[in-house]
Design goal:
The structure is a single chain. By secondary structure, the protein is of the alpha/beta class. Helices cover 44% and strands 12% of the residues. It has one domain: TIM Barrel, CATH 3.20.20.150. It contains 14 helices and twelve strands. The longest helix has 25 residues. The chain is globular, with a radius of gyration of 22 Å. It binds L-rhamnitol and zinc ion. The site of L-rhamnitol has 13 residues, from loops.
């Protein structure tokens, strides 16, 4: 493929784009800076199909299933870090890295999930400091022999207690990340608990889940080191009839505890989008976490793209002035395509959508709205869609020393040839 861009061409197109946006009062230079500063938390689990380092194979479980067998997945911490670093070189802007407890490095020792501590993430923390990539965290309530039936909502006290200990250990680890990096780490809890078929009792598991979360959250941790979040889901494979941690359950819970609520774009009804939920929720809870994913029929975890859904959420974050109260993360896993390209596609598309939203002259839209000139509001929304946004995106990439246009694909090919293909041959 011919290299898509040369620097002079990008600068020339940008010069013209800057003028077009300038006509609407938008300073594109300032917007590029702002778009680059928004941290995106990139999920480690796209790098190895949510397998982690405990057993080397996917156990899966309700609602968490990666399909495909593209060669070259990362098999240990060093490979995953190397792949992530390479992916970072293709993704413009500020980045964080999002770990799961499955990615603990315990050496030859087997350590139960309820016994994990920050020391098992020392390599990650050292790497994070060195690369200046802050970490986020997730307890792993799946792919485990004790996660077969239910976890935090289990009717079996021994099972429930095990997962409560895991929840507490996870909060401690996230808080240690926060100390280490000087910015709070998001600790997001998603539990797969639910029922394949019609439950007779929908209440008791929810009472148990509430009480278990209460116990885990009661452990005090240093202020400013951790942001606790809870994540709902509509259904998963194997939990079609009932999910204990539903959206309503967690809205209520987050409001009561004044913690962060995670909205995963793939966790709602197929035609339900989350843009409109943001302003309503932020009136009553301190923060939101957004998992950008892409629901496709019954799967909630296809690679994020520059879709109307993604763009709509980003526009809403900007128009509402919510960016400072929202943590933005990616969450999908596709094992059927090059995993590094999957990282780059999702993260570039999301940053693109944020840039587009920041470039919107929304002050003009609000003016039209406040004056009751609704034809003008709609007309401007339509006109803004065809402003020369691509030229600003290319310039943003150049400014951050990342390949503009499709030029990054050649680098992925080279990495596949030099690194990934060797792995599969071993
Ligand atoms: C699952 C949730 C959850 C997971 C990750 C691996 O449906 O979206 O966020 O994808 O924790
Ligand atoms: Zn999610």
């Amino acid at each position: 493929m011919k290299a898509y861009t040369d620097k002079t061409a990008v600068e020339e197109s940008y010069g013209r784009a800057k003028e077009s946006y300038g006509n609407f009062g938008v300073n594109t230079d300032a917007v590029i800076g702002a778009a680059l500063r928004i941290p995106l938390s990139i999920h480690c689990w796209q790098g190895d199909d949510v397998i982690g380092f405990e057993s080397g194979q996917s156990l899966g479980g309700n609602g968490i299933l990666a399909t495909g067998d593209y060669p070259g997945r990362a098999r240990n911490g060093d490979e995953l870090r190397a792949d992530a670093e390479f992916a970072f070189s293709l993704i413009p802007g500020k980045k964080r890295f999002n770990l799961h407890s499955l990615y603990a490095e315990t050496g030859a020792q087997k350590v139960g999930r309820d016994e994990l501590g920050p020391e098992h993430f020392q390599k990650w923390m050292d790497w994070s400091k060195k690369k200046e990539i802050p970490l986020d965290y997730n307890p792993s309530f799946f792919s485990h022999p004790l996660a077969g039936d239910a976890t935090l909502s289990s009717a079996d006290p021994a099972v429930r207690k095990f997962w409560i200990r895991h929840a507490i250990s996870s909060r401690r680890i996230a808080s240690a990340f926060g100390e280490n990096q000087g910015t709070a780490a998001v600790n997001d809890s998603w539990v797969p608990d639910g029922s394949k078929d019609l439950p007779a009792d929908r209440l008791a598991p929810r009472e148990r889940l509430r009480d278990a979360l209460d116990e885990a959250l009661a452990v005090p941790l240093p202020a400013g080191t951790i942001i606790d979040a809870v994540e709902s889901k509509l259904f998963g494979i194997g939990s079609e009839a009932y999910v204990t941690g539903s959206h309503e359950f967690y809205i209520g819970y987050a409001v009561k505890k004044q913690i962060s609520l995670c909205l995963d774009t793939g966790h709602f009804h197929p035609t339900e989008t989350i843009g409109d939920k943001i302003s309503g929720l932020l009136l009553f809870i301190p923060r939101l976490l957004i998992h950008f994913s892409r629901g496709l029929r019954w799967d909630s975890d296809h690679v994020t793209i520059f879709s109307d859904d993604t763009r709509d959420v980003c526009r809403e974050l900007v128009r509402t002035g919510a960016l400072s109260r929202v943590d933005i993360a990616l969450d999908y896993f596709d094992a059927s395509i090059n995993r590094i390209a999957a990282w780059a596609i999702g993260a570039r598309s999301l940053r693109k959508a944020l840039l587009e939203a920041l470039l919107e002259p929304h002050g003009l839209l609000k003016e039209a709205e406040n004056a009751g000139r609704f034809h003008e509001r709609l007309a401007l929304m339509e006109e803004f869609k065809t402003l020369p946004f691509g030229a600003v995106w290319d310039k943003l990439c150049l400014d951050d020393s990342v390949p503009p246009g499709a030029d990054w694909l050649a680098k992925v090919d080279a990495y596949e040839k030099d690194v990934l293909s060797r792995r599969s041959a071993e």
